[in-house]
Amino acid sequence: MLHTILKNEDIILASKSPRRAILLKKVGLKFRQIASEIREIKNEMSPEKFVTYYSQKKAEKIYSNHPNSFVIGADTIILFNKKIIGKPKNRNEAKSFLKVLSNNSHKVITGISIYSTGKIVSDIEKTNVFFNAISDKEIDEYLTTNEPFDKAGAYGIQGFGSQFIKKIDGCYFNVMGFPISLFYQMCKSFVQN
User: Fold this and answer.
1) Measured between alpha carbons, how far is 157 from 164 in angstroms, rounded to an integer?
2) Whole-angstrom Cα distance, residue 44 to residue 130?
3) Which of these, 8, 34, 41, 63, is most buried using a 10 Å CB contact count?
4) Domains (ranges, CATH) in the chain?
5) At residue 190, does pLDDT exceed 80?
6) Which residue in 134, 91, 83 sits closest to 109, CA to CA?
7) Residue 97: closest CA among 148, 48, 147
C-alpha cells in the first residue's frame, strides 16, 4: 500500500491542485504541497510528450530545492480532435470548451513524474470520456457554480460536471487529475529499484 511503501519519505506534491491532494490523502499519504508555478506553453509536442514534459519540469523544479524529498509532478490535459484543451482563461472560453465537448467523446491524459534520490521516472494514463448533449442553458447554469474555471476542459467529474458524463472508459481518478493506480505501480517499481 502507498502509505507503507512511502512511510519514510518526505513527500512533496508539486501542485496546488486540491483534487490531487484529496486523492493522496484518501490513500493515507502525508505530504506537503508546493506549487511549481511552471507556465505551460502549447507547442508541437504530442499530447503524451506534453504531459510527460510538464510533469517532469514541475517535479524537477521542486526537487532542485528539496533534493532529499520524494517529489511528485503531474500534468493533465484534455485531448479533443487532436487538440489540447487546458484550463479555461475566462467564462467565454469555458463555455466554448463545454459546447465542443457536448455530445462528443474526448481523452483525458495525465502525466506523472516522480523525482527522488537523483532519479526521475515518468508514465502516463489515458481515459476516454463520453459527454451527453448539453444545452446552452445547462452550460450557463454550470458556469455559475465556478467549478469549471480551474480544471482542464472546464469540467469536474467529481462535482456538478458529473451530470454531463454519459460514461468513461478507463481510470476515473485520472479524470479527476491523478490516476492513483498508476501512481501506486510507479511507486512500487521506484522504491524496489
Assistant:
1) 9
2) 26
3) 63
4) 2-192 (3.90.950.10)
5) no
6) 83
7) 148
Tell me the three-class secondary structure of the chain, residue by residue: CHHHHCCCCCEEECCCCHHHHHHHHHCCCCEEECCCCCCCCCCCCCHHHHHHHHHHHHHHHHHHHCCCCEEEEEEEEEEECCEEECCCCCHHHHHHHHHHHCCCEEEEEEEEEEEECCEEEEEEEEEEEEECCCCHHHHHHHHCCCHHHHCHHHCCCCCHHHHHEEEEECCHHHHHCCCHHHHHHHHHHHHHC
Query: Hey, how many other C-beta atoms are within 10 angstroms of the C-beta on 127?
Result: 20
In angstroms, rounded to a whole number, what is the distance separating the alpha carbons of residues 191 and 7?
A: 11
Model confidence, pTM: 0.92
Partners of residue 84 on adjacent β-strands: 79
Contacts of residue 189, defined as CB under 8 A and 6 or more positions apart, other chains included, come to: 121
Cell matching residue 57: 519540469
Neighbours of 13 (CB within 10 A): 26
Q: Which residues are catalytic?
A: 75
